[in-house]
Write a structure and sequence with these properties.
Elements (H helix, E strand, L loop, with lengths): L9 E5 L4 H12 L3 E6 L2 H13 L4 E5 L5 H13 L6 E4 L14 H27 L4 E6 L12 H21 L4 E8 L5 H10 L3 H8 L10 H12 L10 E4 L8
Parallel strand pairs: 1-2, 1-4, 2-3, 4-5, 5-6, 6-7
Length: 257
């Protein structure tokens, strides 16, 4: 029996248009889940849904801003309309701003906290009543290695990702009796558009920035697919006794930290 089989389960994945969220959606679909892909990028999630359909899977695409309660309701409704209830919520939407606190505008601070933290609260609030009824509900949040150990020129990002870790643990305590497991993954530098955005924000050459990002025991950055495989473990019955955990997936980057 394959404990990572998600057949018969519906998963909402936010931030699904690219990067880690895109890889999660594709992998979960290959393991049998019906995917409700949510993102502000309409073309990205529609293309993802089409790819999943062509591969024989089931998916719907939802354009939504998950920092808005009304949009979160829209995403939930779309997932429920796929039939079979809701079993998995992946709160993956996230952004980064690289700056010290004095260099961070109030607008940037609010936007990062809204996307990285408030969206988890809003999506979880609408999803939890339905996850309770599934019998094996799962919430998976995307944090970061910098949610556990801070880095330079990333004050608001580190604050937001640290909040994700603590929110994950708090929800795990509250909703364990409801049969809902709540965990988070803490990726290290991963080959996504966000990583290249960091280099631009810091004004560093892409090649040098990526070389520095690869300075870890495995001597490379991760791939979205590698992070997705860790997410699949936590979302599946393979992790049936795991809740309140922050799983580091970073090629050893924090091993000596």
């Amino acid at each position: 029996m394959d404990d990572t089989d998600l057949t018969g389960r519906t998963a909402i994945i936010t931030g699904a248009a690219s990067g880690i969220g895109h890889a999660m959606a594709e992998l979960f679909a290959r393991h049998g889940a019906a995917i409700c892909a949510v993102d502000l990028d309409t073309a990205g999630v529609e293309g993802l849904a089409e790819d999943i359909h062509r591969s024989g899977g089931k998916a719907s695409a939802v354009t939504a801003d998950v920092t808005r309660a009304s949009d979160c309701e829209v995403a939930l409704t779309a997932a429920l309309e796929m039939g079979g209830g809701l079993h998995i919520l992946v709160n993956n939407a996230g952004i980064i701003r690289r700056a010290s606190v004095p260099e961070t505008s109030e607008e940037d601070w609010d936007r990062v906290m809204d996307v990285n933290v408030k969206s988890i609260y809003l999506m979880s609030r609408v999803a939890i009543p339905h996850l309770k009824g599934s019998g094996n509900g799962v919430i998976l949040n995307t944090s970061s290695g910098w949610g556990l150990v801070a880095g330079p020129q990333a004050g608001v990002y580190c604050a937001s990702k640290g909040a994700v870790v603590q929110l994950t643990k708090a929800m795990a305590i509250d909703h364990g009796p409801d049969g809902i497991r709540v965990n988070c993954i803490c990726p290290g530098d991963t080959e996504t558009p966000l990583l290249h955005q960091e280099a631009r924000e810091l004004g560093e050459p892409q090649v040098e920035f990526l070389e520095d990002a690869a300075s870890r025991p495995l001597q490379r950055v991760g791939s979205p697919e590698e992070i997705a495989r860790a997410a699949l473990f936590l979302a599946s019955d393979a992790a049936s006794f795991v809740t309140g955990a922050a799983l580091v997936v970073d090629g050893g980057g924090l091993a000596g930290g």
